[in-house]
TrEMBL record:
<dbReference type="InterPro" id="IPR032675">
    <property type="entry name" value="LRR_dom_sf"/>
</dbReference>
<dbReference type="Pfam" id="PF24758">
    <property type="entry name" value="LRR_At5g56370"/>
</dbReference>
<dbReference type="InterPro" id="IPR055302">
    <property type="entry name" value="F-box_dom-containing"/>
</dbReference>
<protein>
    <recommendedName>
        <fullName>F-box domain-containing protein</fullName>
    </recommendedName>
</protein>
<dbReference type="InterPro" id="IPR036047">
    <property type="entry name" value="F-box-like_dom_sf"/>
</dbReference>
<dbReference type="InterPro" id="IPR055411">
    <property type="entry name" value="LRR_FXL15/At3g58940/PEG3-like"/>
</dbReference>
<feature type="domain" description="F-box">
    <location>
        <begin position="33"/>
        <end position="81"/>
    </location>
</feature>
<dbReference type="Pfam" id="PF00646">
    <property type="entry name" value="F-box"/>
</dbReference>
<dbReference type="InterPro" id="IPR001810">
    <property type="entry name" value="F-box_dom"/>
</dbReference>
<dbReference type="InterPro" id="IPR053781">
    <property type="entry name" value="F-box_AtFBL13-like"/>
</dbReference>
Length: 267
């Protein structure tokens, strides 16, 4: 059993900020030929996906061949790579990136949305994330307060494999229809500083049949009851308060005992 997994807020995306496209020419290749542009399109997509977002966007100005590469390559966006102080300007840049990229979205880490003034962008971002099939999403407010609600569109991100949420009020799942929430591919879920009504976490778990790892810190306002269920659920880590009552309902891969790990508990 994979008993312990990374509890950090974010896993650094697989991009490099130390290399440049110019460096790829290598020593001894000074004949002026553009060997990178001659690569197959699939390789160009992979190259662009591994660049910091500023450099990736700049590739659209290199030539006609490169113009559409970035907007079609799987998006990897870590908004803290954007060299602008957090605030309205960074939110505007993130908004422009998400709107202009055609998808798919491989990995998106968002830490910039911290004001009720940005609620229009928040609604647009969650809708776009769902439409363009985000696979790996970290969506955390930098301020440790819970006074903004996540739009229900976040529950339509049915391509997610990994989801980390921090310091949001969770959407009400009581009266949702059309199979929402639905996370058939979700394997890892971390929620901390999240306000959830009774039953919301249960619905998340029941809609995530592939879930293997679950980390929870719901000490702001813990639900009264949590039902742990999932045919593939192997590891549950709680930090602080998870709920008044926790019941392991149907989780055949879970260990049979509870063991403390510092301030954490494995159920």
């Amino acid at each position: 059993m994979d008993a312990v997994f990374n509890l950090s807020c974010s896993t650094r995306p697989t991009v490099t900020s130390t290399s440049t496209l110019a460096a790829a020419a290598g020593v001894g290749y000074d004949d002026g030929k553009d060997r990178i542009s001659a690569l197959p399109e699939d390789l160009l997509y992979d190259v662009v996906s591994r660049l910091p977002i500023r450099d990736a966007v700049h590739t659209t100005t290199l030539s006609n061949r490169w113009r559409d590469i970035w907007s079609s390559a799987p998006l990897v966006l870590f908004d803290q790579d954007i060299d602008i102080d957090p605030g309205p300007k960074r939110v505007s840049v993130v908004d422009s990136v998400l709107v202009s990229h055609r998808g798919p979205f491989r990995s998106v880490d968002l830490f910039s949305c911290d004001s009720k003034d940005h609620e229009p962008e928040l609604a647009r971002w969650t809708r776009i994330l769902a439409e363009r099939g985000v696979q790996d999403l970290v969506f955390i407010r930098p301020r440790v307060t819970v006074d903004m609600a996540l739009p229900a569109a976040i529950l339509r991100c049915d391509k997610l494999c990994r989801l980390h949420l921090g310091f949001w009020e969770f959407p009400d799942t009581t009266n949702l229809s059309n199979g929402v929430p639905n996370f058939p591919k979700l394997r890892e879920l971390k929620v901390f500083g999240i306000l959830m009504a009774d039953g919301d976490l249960d619905r998340m778990l029941s809609s995530s049949p592939a879930l293997e790892k679950l980390a929870l810190d719901m000490s702001h306002r813990p639900p009264k009851h949590v039902r742990l269920l999932g045919q593939n659920l192997k590891c549950v880590i709680s930090y602080g308060t998870i709920a008044v009552e926790v019941a392991v309902v149907e989780a055949p891969c879970m260990p049979g005992a509870t063991r403390p790990v510092g301030n954490l508990s494995l159920f």
